[in-house]
Amino acid sequence: MAVAHAPLARFRAGLDPLVLVTVTAAWALMLVLVVLDRPAVLDHGAILSAPPASLPVVLVLFVATWQVMTAAMMLPTALPMLRAFGRVARGQARPRTTMAVFTSAYFAVWTGFAVVALGGDAVLHRAVDASPWLAQRPDLIAGGVLVAAGLFQLSPLKERCLTECRSPSAFLWTHYRRGVAGAWHTGLRHAGYCLGCCWALMLVMFAVGTGNLVALAALTGVMLLERTHPRGRRLVPVVGVALVVAGTLVVSLAGPAEDGHGDADHAAPGYTVDDGGASVLVGG
C-alpha cells in the first residue's frame, strides 16, 4: 500500500490524457522543427548569429518555441505537483481557471530563465569575439558549464529545492493560497523551487545546443527521475560527479586550433572568428 503513495506511482496514476497529449505533441513539434532544419527557433547560436533586421522575429519565435520545450521537458517533472494542486483546487469557485493560472506560472518562470540565459550567452559570445585565444578554445566554455552544473548538483541548495519538488503535499500544506491570485503566487513559488532544482541541468542544454533532441531527452529523463522516482535522490550525486568528471576532461583536452587560427571547425557555435583575415560566422 505504501508503494501506491510513492512519487513515481503518483506520476504514473496522474498521467492523464490531456498532459500526455500535450507532452507528446510538444516533442513531435520539436522533432519536426529539427527535421525541417529550422535551427533559428531552437538553437541559441543561430539566434545570436541572426541578422539584426530579423532578430526581433527570431526572438519572438524563440520565446514561442521555448513554451513548447517547457511543455516537453518540465510538464512531466511537475506533474505530481500539478495533480496535487488540481485536487485541492476542486473546492474553489473556478477550479479550471485556478489550475490554468497555476500552470502558467511555471511557463512564466522558465521563460524568464530562457531570456536570462540567452542574454548571458550573448555576453559570452561577445567576450569570445573579443578574445582570439578563447575563440580557439570553445571547449573551455563547454567544460566549464559541465563542471559548474556538476558542482551545483552536489550543493545544499540543490538538495533543498529538490526536497520541495519531491513533496507536493507538504509544499501545498505550507504555501497553498486560495483564489486566482493565490494560484499565481503558489505557482510562482513552486516554479521557483523547480527552477532552483533544474536550472543547472537546463544550462547544460544551452551548452550542448537546444536543437539537440537526444541531449534534451536525456536531461528530461534525469530531471524526471530525480524528482519523481522513489530513489531519485541517489541519482543526484551520481549525475553531479559525472558532470564534473566530464567537464574536467573536456577542459583538460581543450586546445587551440591546429593552424593557430580560430577556424570554423574549432570555433564555438555562433562565434565570429578570424581565418587568415576573413571573417567567418559559424552557425549554431
Helix content: over 70%
Instruction: State the strand order across the main sheet.
Output: 1-2
The fraction of residues assigned to DSSP E strands is under 5%
Overall mean pLDDT score?
Answer: 78
> Globular, elongated, flat, extended or rod-shaped: what is the shape?
globular
Number of strand elements: 2
In the predicted model, the low-confidence regions spanning at least 5 consecutive residues are 1-5, 7-15, 259-284
Count of the domains: 1
Number of helices: 12
- One letter per element, helices H and strands E, the order comes to HHHHHHHHHHHHEE
* Major pleated sheet: 2 strands, antiparallel
Radius of gyration: 21 Å
Structural class: mainly alpha
Protein name: Putative metal-binding membrane protein
Pfam family, one: PpoB2
Transmembrane segments: 18-36, 56-79, 100-120, 198-223, 235-254
Keywords: Membrane, Transmembrane, Transmembrane helix
Describe the model.
There is one protein chain. The protein is mostly helical. It has one domain. It contains twelve helices and two strands. It has helices at 7-13, 17-35, 44-48, 55-89, 95-129, 132-135, 138-153, 156-166, 168-175, 179-208, 213-228, 232-253; strands at residues 272-275, 278-281. The chain has a two-stranded antiparallel ribbon. Strand 1 and strand 2 (278-281) form a beta hairpin. Helix 4 packs parallel to helix 11, helix 7 (138-153) crosses helix 10 (179-208) and helix 10 packs across helix 11. It starts with 6 loop residues before the first helix and ends with a strand. Mean pLDDT is 78; it is low at 1-5, 7-15 and 259-284.
